[in-house]
Design a protein that fits this description.
Elements (H helix, E strand, L loop, with lengths): L1 H68 L4 H14 L3 E7 L5 E5 L4 H13 L4 H8 L3 E2 L3 E2 L5 E8 L9 E7 H12 L5 E5 L2 E6 L11 E7 L2 E7 L3 H7 L3 H65 L1 H27 L3 H29 L8 E4 H10 L2 H6 L3 E6 L5 E4 L1 H18 L7 E9 L2 E8 L29 H11 L3 E7 L3 E9 L2
Parallel strand pairs: 12-14
Antiparallel strand pairs: 1-2, 1-6, 3-5, 4-5, 5-6, 7-8, 7-10, 9-10, 11-13, 14-15, 15-17, 16-17
Helix pairs in contact: 1-5, 1-7, 8-9, 10-12, 12-13
């Protein structure tokens, strides 16, 4: 429990340090972004004021010419107004209103009806721009108005006093869209911006992906008696320059290190405790493995003895033949002696000794096959002899069941180094399975092929039986799995054969087609 508490403290301290570092870096990042936004906001406000002042100064110069000339002919005024609007692109239209507040001239002429409507709206405000301009004899700006075709705008009113007498107004109607387009293009500003007056939006250029709640800066802009508010946000270029992966990396890296340190400390103690437990488990496992190995060896030995039981009839026949020859020669021996046929007596004894050797060979092979050979060393043996000795045990059974045995053993096969008894057991198991497979077939054929390929000995055992079902072929080497009827097999023969071949560094595979038979292929490395 103590180590868990210490690990938790390490994790908590590391997490707190990581979050604190992340917070500091994010705050610094936001300060940099805020500084960039403040700089752009200040510059935009400055340019708006300068541009609007220049536009109004141009209107004042036009008014001065009017006062100097004590009025202007319409054609000259229209030419002057249109030329003026060509260079001063923020204007929507220009107008001259006489001293009786009647609109006389409008440029362009097609805007007459709209100008009348706008001036009607201007006169409705409590802070009347026309009256204010006349009274103060200087420029006045109206509140924002809705232009028919160009969004929001405002009216600049300039009173005319030729020779000191009031003679009406020069009216300049501005479009916020046109004014801000000129300003933003001239200053190369790309920051999202919103302008408001008296709680109403008069101009807006904010991309859809802009987070209006983040890094916003408000700037108040007093212009000719009006109070405008400018709201700026960081542009994508500012964010791309100022945003960094460093805070997230510091947070992630710090949390990971804290996690690793705390759990390393905790698991170091756990590993020490587990180590002792594993040592005890390993000792138990070693004893269990030894017990399993002994059990497996006994199981293999029992399987071989069971195979010997199946082959008892064939073995008896193999031993009966030399015994008959011995008996016959033993009976004829006294007669040959009585007839003084010494050469026939010698021949009889020679035949008896040959049959004794043959019987001893069979018994020796049975003794070798029947004993526990799990710990025998591998020895070099003729490949052909290995196959022939395996066939010898079952030849009598094949003959009694009318099974045709086909042998195809390539000549001059090299010797193979193996555990002879174990490989014989594998081949014997495959031959017994082939015998059982063709027992109820019309065509009863069991074959064995042996040949060399790529420094490997290949032994194929095939039959003409009914084949193995497709859903069972993948499980054919599993322990206790069998396709035979109950009582005819344990399901251990192929699994043990598979283990023996793998222990020899070889491979065993099966191919089968229902109705056409089965082929087992054993591959063993040569010397």
């Amino acid at each position: 429990m103590k180590y868990q508490i210490i690990a938790g403290i390490i994790l908590s301290l590391g997490a707190a340090l990581s979050v604190g570092s992340w917070h500091y870096l994010k705050r610094y990042e936001n300060q940099v972004i805020g500084s960039e936004v403040a700089s752009q906001s200040h510059n935009i406000a400055k340019v708006i004021k300068v541009q609007l002042t220049e536009q109004v100064q141009s209107l004042k110069r036009m008014a001065k010419r009017w006062e100097y000339n004590n009025g202007t002919p319409f054609d000259q005024w229209l030419f002057d107004a249109m030329n003026f609007m060509t260079y001063e692109q923020a204007y929507h239209s220009l107008a001259w209103v006489d001293k009786y507040n009647q609109i006389q001239w409008v440029a362009p002429i097609r805007q007459v009806s709209e100008v009348k409507k706008l001036l009607s709206e201007v006169s409705q405000y409590h802070n009347n721009a026309l009256a204010q301009a006349k009274q103060s004899q200087t420029v006045a700006i109206s509140q924002s108005l809705e232009l028919a075709q160009d969004g929001k705008g405002f009216v600049v009113v300039l009173p005319l006093f030729p020779k000191g007498e009031f003679d009406g107004y020069l009216i300049g109607i501005f479009s916020f869209n046109q004014l801000m387009s000129v300003i933003l293009e001239t200053g190369h500003f790309d920051t999202p911006i919103t302008m408001m007056e008296a709680g109403q939006i008069v101009y807006q250029q904010v991309p859809e992906n802009t987070r209006v709640d983040q890094n916003m800066l408000q700037t108040k802009l007093p212009v000719f008696g009006r109070q405008w508010e400018i709201y700026n946000w960081p542009s994508q270029s500012v964010l791309s320059r100022s945003k960094s992966l460093l805070p997230a990396m510091v947070l992630t890296f710090g949390l990971c290190i804290s996690f690793l340190l705390s759990f390393s400390f905790y698991f170091a103690r756990q590993v020490e405790r587990k180590k002792h437990e594993l040592e005890m488990k390993n000792e138990e496992l070693r004893l269990k493995n030894k017990e399993i190995a002994n059990t497996q060896s006994q199981l293999v030995h029992s399987t071989k003895l069971a195979s010997l039981g199946e082959m008892a009839t064939g073995i008896a026949h193999e031993l009966n033949q030399p015994l008959q020859v011995i008996s016959m020669n033993a009976e004829m021996g006294p007669e040959f002696l009585a007839q003084n046929k010494t050469n026939r007596v010698v021949k009889s004894f020679t035949d008896i000794m040959q049959q004794v050797d043959r019987a001893q060979s069979i018994i020796k092979q049975l003794r070798c096959f029947g004993r526990d050979s799990a710990h025998d060393e591998h020895q070099s043996i003729s490949s052909e002899e290995l196959i022939k000795s395996s066939l010898m045990f079952l030849k009598r059974q094949f003959t009694s069941k009318n099974i045709e045995v086909r042998e195809n053993i390539a000549p001059a096969l090299p010797q193979i180094k193996c555990n002879k008894v174990q490989i014989e057991q594998v081949l014997l198991n495959l031959l017994v399975n082939a015998r059982d497979a063709v027992e109820n077939s019309e065509v009863k054929v069991v074959g064995i092929k042996a040949f060399q390929k790529d420094r490997r000995l290949l032994i194929e055992v095939y039959d003409s039986g009914s084949g193995i079902p497709s859903d069972a072929i993948d499980r054919i080497f599993d322990p206790f799995f069998t396709t035979k009827e109950v009582g005819k097999g344990t399901g251990l023969g192929l699994s043990i054969s598979h283990a023996i071949i793998e222990q020899h560094g070889g491979d065993i595979s099966v191919e089968s087609e229902q109705g056409k038979g089965t082929q087992f292929l054993v591959q063993l490395p040569l010397n």
